[in-house]
Amino acid sequence: MTTPHAKPNTNKAQKTVRVLLPLPVGSGYDYIVPPDLSIKIGSFVSVPFGKKEVLGIVWAEGSGEVPASKLKALNRPLDLEPLPEVTRAFVDWVAGYTLTPPGSILKMVLGGQLRPLKDKDKLDFPQPDPALLTGNLTEEQTRAAEALCADVQEAAYAVTLLDGVTGSGKTEVYAQALAQCFRQGRQALLLLPEIAMTAALLGRLEKHFGAPPTLWHSGLTEKQRRLNWHAIKQGKAKFILGARSALFLPYADLGLIVVDEEHEGAYKQEEGVIYHGRDMAVVRAHLGKIPLILASATPSLETHHNVKQGKYKHLILHSRFGAAKMPQIELVDLRAEKMSAQTFISQPLFDALEKALAAKQQAMLFLNRRGYAPLTLCRACGNRLQCPSCTAWLIEHKKTSRLHCHQCGYSTKIPSACPVCNAEDKFAACGPGIERIAEEVAARLPTARAAIMASDTLDSAKGAAELVEQMDNHAIDILIGTQIMAKGYHFPRLTLVGVIDADLGLAGGDPRAAERTFQLLQQVAGRSGRAEDEGTVFLQTTQPDHPVMQALAKGQRDAFMQTEMRERQAFHLPPFARLASLTISGADRTQVVVAAQKIAAAAPQTERMRILGPAPAPYAILRGKTRYRLTIQAARNVNLSAAVAAWLAPLSLPRTLKVQVDIDPYSFL
Ligand code: ADP
Ligand code: ZN
């Protein structure tokens, strides 16, 4: 029997654990585990933090960095199953790769703020029934589906590129893999680049499986978030359809990931935790030892390279399903067209529009520019209206009758007099935005029923669904829009696509400009002629000889990719090299410049890394903050995350500055 006066042995008796908090600080803190509590790695616990009590996850044994006598005890475990090991490993991996505090990744795992279930909450989610998926696949589709299903059955890491022209039935094929996953009782995740797209696909998937997928994106209500998160964690939601953030959820038993439109730039998150959804999906599949399907009609060069290297499998669907043929693509040489400064639809495109309308078919006009005009200038003095806090022109929007900055959201009334020379009513709109195209359509084709589709004209996924319905019911003749209408939609009566400015994406210093322009225009073109009626596409360009335009017109995707690949190799660009970028920003310009130079001076001296800059970013000022950029080009075998971390760690920089690290940058602005 022990005496009541025996002193507890603080060294041995007090078990400590490291608890990770969903906050952008450190990599967790040690806490004492009260002897009466049963705690596992992964347990959800409540801990004292400062004056508050916060939720955290038991991440590891105590680090022992702080003596136990100085530690606080954790309060209590929550009534939740521990966070799965694969989820924890994923958090650590992404944190290390993106140079982000693991707590910031954990926050995504918890879906933001963790919301405990309420007593009345029910998690009886309708289950997808794989037996309902009939699927009368073509021979080629069947072969692809069988290969994918075999991978799902194998339940091991495997990445497959499902490569097929728009309308070839990629969705139908990966649906078979989803069904196989459900037959095995496991969860499947389908990732889409944009939420606006979900509406189009949702009904189709629900029909296939007799139950709607469980959604995960930023537009959910509080309650939906809470229910869906818990259902996913408990394994009660089997089919999850989500935006990139869905990748981080704590799946009970994830058996398959599908990344649709894998080439999409929208998979890259550019704020907060900077990561590429597709690339992190590969990591998640690897850690979870599960198959991953990357679907696209225009695969990224990165994925293409991985196929060539034998890292990914390649399944090809060569032709459109059924009677649908690939559309005819015509180039309209804008240099040869005599158009007034107020006209943006060339005669050949206009004639085709009239013809399509007469034949009771639908048309789409594409211009990747919101608003009425991208630039407003004073005809008296030449002054261009610019955002007061950004290096960006103000963009006139008819919808609001105001000028808007697309960078910071600033908006102002259109002044009647020029703020520089005071001339009255001398403003001229330069160039077109989609609203101006709509105006031209209204003037030249007054009986046509036209509608605009852009991110600022649709307030919600519901708005998109309504437009889609109007297209389906043929209540719209001409749909005029930006890239948000380029993807996923299937409008059987749409036979004509006109691209107002095909050159738009080619300008600027982005190494992926040509690839992206090709992908986007190919995608837009793919909206045309998806049923029996043959489709036509008009690309208005001032560079008809550009390799991108030629490849599109001749349907030579693979040749274009090969040329592009050689250029990337010659210039040591991805996928043959690695890039990272550092953006230094702050309100004090001098401080920014000095810090950027200091960072550059401390750069590691190695032949395998080359530092470009510092130089002012293309958006040299955003929201009043000066921005400088450094780009790091490194050999493929350099661990760039580790190199940048080691480079920046010893530097002390003013706290008023922000240094944003972007590993594998896709934006160079
Ligand atoms: P993708 O995803 O490659 O663009 P989809 O899967 O959307 O192609 O297919 C295009 C259209 O063809 C859709 O309307 C789809 O329902 C139809 N389709 C494709 N394959 C089949 C099939 N085997 N049986 C019936 N319809 C199919
Ligand atoms: Zn601005």
Textual characterization of the structure:
The chain is of the alpha/beta class. Strand 19 and strand 20 (411-413) form a beta hairpin. Helices cover 29% and strands 23% of the residues. The chain has 5 domains: 16-109, GIY-YIG endonuclease, CATH 3.40.1440; 130-317, Rossmann fold; 323-369 and 434-574, 3-Layer(aba) Sandwich (Rossmann fold), CATH 3.40.50; 370-431, no CATH class; 578-663, Ribosomal protein S10 (Alpha-Beta Plaits), CATH 3.30.70. It contains 17 helices and 29 strands. The strands form 7 sheets. It has a 7-stranded parallel β-sheet, sandwiched between helices. The chain binds adenosine-5'-diphosphate and zinc ion (ZN).
Number of domains: 5
The end-to-end distance, rounded to whole angstroms, is 73 Å
Based on DSSP secondary structure assignment, what is the total number of beta strands? 29
Mean pLDDT: 93
- Biggest sheet character: 7 strands, parallel
The residue ranges in which pLDDT falls below 50 over 5 or more consecutive positions are 1-10
Give the DSSP E fraction (strand runs of 2 or more residues).
Answer: 15-25%
Global Rg: 27 Å
What is the strand arrangement across the widest sheet?
A: 8-9-7-10-13-6-14
Helix content: 25-40%
Annotated CATH homologous superfamily of the largest domain: P-loop containing nucleotide triphosphate hydrolases
Task: Please state the oligomeric state of the protein chains shown.
Answer: single chain
What general form does the structure show? globular
